[in-house]
Write a structure and sequence with these properties.
Shape: elongated
Number of strands: 3
Largest sheet: 3 strands, antiparallel
Distance between the termini: 25 Å
Oligomer: single chain
Number of helices: 2
Structural class: alpha+beta
Number of domains: 1
Order of helices and strands: HEHEE
Strand order of the largest sheet: 1-2-3
């Protein structure tokens, strides 16, 4: 639970910094892809992580702390 809250706090601060940086730079003509990696709710017991590849509409899963990934 604490790991999940820490990750959410980190992602929240990162996205606000990213939004600030984008306001300074010129607009990009090409849309960048976005990927999301997040732990399972029971990560401390199962070491499972999920990775969403938005550009290809894929969901990957790792059950060994990110060492290997499976569709």
């Amino acid at each position: 639970m604490a790991l999940t809250l820490l990750l959410l706090a980190f992602l929240g601060s990162w996205s606000s910094q990213r939004a600030y940086a984008q306001s300074i730079l010129p607009a990009c003509q090409e849309e960048l892809t976005r990927d999301y990696v997040f732990p399972s709710p029971r990560y401390d017991q199962d070491e499972t992580m999920f990775w969403i590849n938005v550009s290809e509409s894929l969901l990957w899963r790792s059950q060994d702390n990110g060492q290997t990934w499976q569709l």
